Amino acid sequence: MMVPRILLSLMFLLISLSAQAQLYKWTDADGKVTYSDMPPPNSAVKVETKSLSSADSNVALPFELAAAAKNSPVVFYSATTCAPCDDGRNYLKQNGIPFSEKTVNTNADFDKFRKISGGSNLPYLIIGKVKILGFNSSDWRSNLTQAGYPESSMLPNDYQYPAPEPIVPAVAATPTATQPALSQPEPPARDPNGFQF
């Protein structure tokens, strides 16, 4: 008789833990937005849920920050030897802004960057649909705030930024008309008796 009670208790514990792993955001009839780990009432108008454990990122972000990052992702374009790029990167990290970084270091990167930005100056920041050329902390802050990013860092301490990637991914060299493909080595010669030379 004791074993079924233990199993039943464990089952309820697991159900309660899985229920707590959800965060809810809803709007009531008066337009008031509410965040809670409890499910919204049936009268809630606009309901969103967010899992507190995220498999697609290295750590779960707080709801407000996750919503801003989803609705207005930040992409930062930089170059290796660019002091304003270093300042911009440091600014984003100090303010707890999750972002992806694209580097402009090769001629192919630069050509693609000019098509994206319409210019050649770095750094270049995209916040959702907003595009900002150059680093100006007050301009960046006002646009990040408008996009819903918190004024102070809410990033968890164990958050890790993704590694920078070149705009044009490096690909294996393919043979061209002026560059013939490497030929396969010919098999070793054999004498009529089957011996290899």
Element layout with pairings:
Layout: H1 2-20, E1 22-27, E2 33-36, E3 46-51, H2 63-71, E4 74-78, H3 83-94, E5 100-103, H4 107-117, E6 124-127, E7 130-133, H5 137-146, E8 165-166
Question: Would you give an account of this structure?
Answer:
The chain has helices at residues 2-20, 63-71, 83-94, 107-117, 137-146; strands spanning 22-27, 33-36, 46-51, 74-78, 100-103, 124-127, 130-133, 165-166. It folds into 2 domains: 21-53, no CATH class; 56-170, Glutaredoxin (3-Layer(aba) Sandwich). It is α/β, with parallel strands linked by helices and 197 residues long. β4, α3 (83-94) and β5 form a beta-alpha-beta unit. The longest helix is centred in the N-terminal third of the chain and has 19 residues, at 2-20. The N and C termini lie far apart (82 Å). It contains 5 helices and 8 strands; from the N terminus they run αβββαβαβαββαβ.
| Intertermini distance | 82 Å
CATH class of the largest domain: Alpha Beta
User: How many DSSP E strands?
Assistant: 8
Helix count?
5
User: For the residues shown, what is the average pLDDT?
Assistant: 77
Shape: elongated
Number of domains: 2
- Multimer state: single chain
Q: Largest sheet at a glance?
A: 5 strands, mixed
Q: What is the second-level CATH architecture of the largest domain?
A: 3-Layer(aba) Sandwich
The percentage helix is 25-40%
Query: What structural class do the secondary elements suggest?
Result: alpha/beta
